[in-house]
Amino acid sequence: MRELFFYCELEDMYEEFLNECYEPINICGYEYNQGHALRQLDSVAFRCGVCDYESEQFEEIVFSKMTHEEREYYIASPKTTMYLRKED
Asked: What does the domain layout of the chain look like in residue ranges?
C-alpha cells in the first residue's frame, strides 16, 4: 500500500525539513527553529516553500480517483487531494 499524505502533513514535513537544514535563530534572546519561525512570521513565503517542496518530491492524487483499498484508511471528501511521494 502506498503512503499518502494530506497537505497539512506536507506543511509539517517542510517545517521539519527547514529545521534540519538550518541552525536555530535568536530573536530578542529567544531561540526558534527556522521552520517554525518562517511558518509564523511569513506565512506566504512558507506556503510558497511548501508548494516547491511538494512539486519536487510529491505528486497529487485526487481522492475520488484512488482505488477502494487506497481510500480505506482515509476519511476525506471525493474532492480531497492527497499527495504521494515520487519514486526515484
From this structure: 4-85
